[in-house]
Amino acid sequence: MITVIGIIAIVTAIAIPNLYSFSAGMRLRSATRDLYSNMQKARINAIRQSTTMTINIMTDGKGSYILNNGTIVNIASAYPGVALAGQTFLYKNQAAAVFFSDGTSNGGTVTFKGATGQQATVTVLASGKITSS
Fold it and tell me: 98: Cβ–Cβ under 8 A, 6 or more apart, which residues?
């Protein structure tokens, strides 16, 4: 019985750090997919409605972004351990990803950083193509 308890303790000691790393990576990927998905929706709506759609990227350290409909997505509260590491969007002196009625964009990147130091980026080309890595 003591041998079994010892084996369980060793396996648990090995597994816990791996579970932490795994869950941190999942939160980072989820935050990236969330922004990617919201950008795809904004681009599709800009084309469908023949208008301009904007996603404002907050650079206040809270890691939030505001969708065109006014919805605020706070990365820090939605995905604990994930932070906005940087962004390169600029439109009319604001940090904003803009999608025009023809599907094009002002282009830029948003980079998230996870709790374990991993990074993930959402990139929008001027052509409107959106990728994540």
Answer: 52, 53, 54, 55, 89, 91, 105, 106
